[in-house]
Write a structure and sequence with these properties.
Distance between the termini: 35 Å
CATH superfamily of the largest domain: MetI-like
Largest sheet: none
CATH topology of the largest domain: MetI-like fold
Number of strands: 0
Structural class: mainly alpha
CATH architecture of the largest domain: Orthogonal Bundle
CATH class of the largest domain: Mainly Alpha
Strand content: under 5%
Low-confidence stretches: none
Helix content: over 70%
Number of domains: 2
Length: 262
């Protein structure tokens, strides 16, 4: 074991892993540290530490409004994406040939199209029908963007589902709808929970679609972008740190819960 640890290949691999960790986590750590700096401008050295920037967020009405709107859009868009994604996954398992290929391409399309192109196209589309940009347009865009991820995760889970489960439910007297609710949905639950949390985080952190389709009520990422023009202050670092902590916590929770359900 000691020979392996002292070998040049192991040392080189260790340096690469450490360098990659510093490259990925270093900027995040700097932002988190700046959020506790007792000054108006971010930068080193940090001579005094404070929590005033986090305390100020609690009384910042604009921040609370943007946070509430982001959570509302994320929850609603995730719910819509779940319904459409489950339907798409079930439809893909029941179709064959050219129809399956076309449906699969249609489901995956929102994940392939660049965000800027999708946002501009959807803005032109809703204006053609007389709709105004705003929270409803942002919600619709986020739901469309989340459908492929939920559908693909559900489809992967469905492909591993034993066919005898639904057949046994029908033999016991359940119709197709009851068998779907009692058998298929519980079997899909690990994939649905993971997909729902990923969809929520994707919507919560989305900037491009929220920027192009939003109105006078900004979401949290758009609010952060707007405040950048006022200067890079520790207050922005505090907001970014809170978003980072929530994102990591939800990601770890989703991974842990999915493993337990499996």
């Amino acid at each position: 074991m000691s020979e392996i640890l002292n070998s040049p290949k192991w040392r080189l691999a260790s340096l690469l892993y450490i360098g990659f960790a510093i490259y990925m986590l270093g900027p995040l750590g700097i932002v988190a540290a700046m959020s506790f700096k007792n000054a108006q401008i971010m930068g080193f050295p940090i001579t005094e530490w404070t929590t005033q920037w986090y305390e100020a967020l609690l009384t910042d009405r604009e921040f609370v409004s943007a946070l509430t709107l982001s959570i509302y859009i994320a929850v609603c868009s995730t719910a819509i994406a779940l319904v459409i994604g489950i339907w798409a996954a079930v439809a893909l398992t029941r179709t064959r040939g050219v129809v399956r290929v076309l449906l699969f391409a249609l489901v995956c399309l929102p994940a392939v199209v660049p965000g800027t192109v999708a946002a501009i196209s959807l803005r032109i589309y809703i204006q053609a029908f007389g709709w105004s940009p705003g929270p409803l347009a942002v919600l619709l865009a986020h739901a469309i963007h989340s459908v492929p991820y939920i559908a693909l995760m559900a489809l992967t889970r469905l492909n591993s589902m034993p066919k005898g489960l639904t057949e046994a439910a029908r033999d016991l007297g359940a119709d197709n709808f009851i068998a779907f609710l009692r058998v298929t949905i519980p079997f899909l639950m690990p994939a649905l929970i993971g997909g729902a949390i990923f969809s929520f985080l994707s919507s919560f952190d989305d900037f491009i679609r929220s920027f192009f389709l939003g109105s006078f009520s900004p979401t949290l990422p758009v609010l952060i972008f707007n405040r950048l023009f006022l200067g890079v202050s520790p207050a922005l670092a505090a907001i970014s740190t809170l978003v980072l902590v929530v994102t990591i916590a939800l990601g770890l929770y989703a991974e842990t819960l999915s493993r337990k359900l499996r």
